[in-house]
Specification:
With 293 residues, the chain is mainly β. It has helices at residues 32-37, 63-68, and strands at residues 25-28, 40-42, 47-53, 76-83, 86-93, 105-106, 111-114, 125-135, 138-142, 176-183, 199-201, 207-214, 221-227, 235-240, 247-254, 264-274, 277-289.
Length: 293
């Protein structure tokens, strides 16, 4: 959640791991393959379903579509009331995955839907909100990490675990590095969230490796290493980050030294370096085969 009043951004610990005017907590899936298989969304606390919406498609938002669905930006949604004006809200749910109806009683941990791609979002995730109705028709949004309020100001001295709304306090994490993607064609904005390829032909002219991460900083170094079976050539490449956003991508392209990649199991590893220190890493494995695919 964004704690910085007005323009600018600050999470509950006064870092920049949020985006301006963000009023909830995002829980992101690795790729669309995970969404297709189904990842359950569970009620955060016991209560009653007070509102919901279903039927919106799971489509990554575009500039044109954003204008069309601005009032339904939360996508498919469930809102649960917990008494005393408290509510939790679950956004971007998968179409037709809702397991409850308005008026149903739910228990803590009960599966209520699945994570989706509906509404204003470019990637599959759950946008989770905690709010309380303090005055008529107006809600105050609360950060479950420390109980602070939306745009209420960053107060690190009040960042105490005992004020957390989570059942078990969750520690603040640094940059998140997601498993890289390997592909035979250039990865675009439309394929950025595809599932990892299991097999690639050995005769591809270029092997594209795409890294993805959240909350990385300008000046960070993305280190790509590509390792094949015994005797295969090894590759390495560094990319310096030149822009800072909530979600950042970096890529490296590798050409085979002798016209084709050696068959067998390959491992692509992406490591994020900041001022010489390792901030996180992730890897993916895939097969190179001599079959024409």
């Amino acid at each position: 959640m964004d704690h910085a009043p007005g323009p600018g951004k600050a999470d509950y610990s006064c870092k920049a791991q949020t985006q301006d005017k963000h009023n909830g907590t995002d829980i992101v899936l690795q790729n669309l393959g995970a969404m297709k298989k189904g990842v359950a969304v569970r009620a955060a606390a016991p209560g009653r379903v007070v509102a919901l919406r279903n039927g919106m498609p799971d489509i990554a938002v575009t500039r044109e579509r954003r204008k069309q669905i601005m009032k339904q930006g939360c996508g498919n949604v469930i809102i649960i009331g917990h008494g005393g004006g408290w509510q939790t809200q679950y956004c971007h749910l998968k179409k037709d995955s809702l397991l409850v109806k308005k008026g149903d009683r739910v228990s803590a941990g009960q599966a209520i839907a699945q994570v989706g791609l509906s509404g204003i979002t470019e990637y599959p995730h759950l946008h989770f909100m905690v709010k309380n109705r303090h005055i008529k028709n107006a809600f105050q949004y609360y950060d479950p990490f420390n109980g602070g309020v939306f745009e209420g100001g960053c107060k690190p001295e009040e960042n105490k675990s005992e004020k957390s709304l989570w059942r078990a306090p969750i520690s603040h994490v640094g940059p998140i590095i997601m498993p890289p993607l390997a592909a035979a064609t250039r990865i675009t904005r439309q394929t950025f969230w595809q599932a990892q390829t299991n097999e690639l032909p050995s005769n591809i002219p270029i092997l594209y490796i795409q890294a993805r991460g959240f909350h990385t900083l300008t000046g960070d170094i993305w280190r790509f290493t590509l390792n094949g079976p015994a005797g295969a050539a090894k590759f390495a490449h560094d990319v310096k980050q030149t822009r800072q956003r909530q979600l950042v991508g970096a890529n490296a392209n590798f050409r085979p030294p002798n016209g084709q990649f050696q068959g067998g199991t390959w491992t692509a590893t992406v490591t994020l370096l900041r001022n010489g220190s390792v901030m996180g890493s992730a890897q993916s494995r895939f097969e190179i085969t001599s079959d024409q695919k």
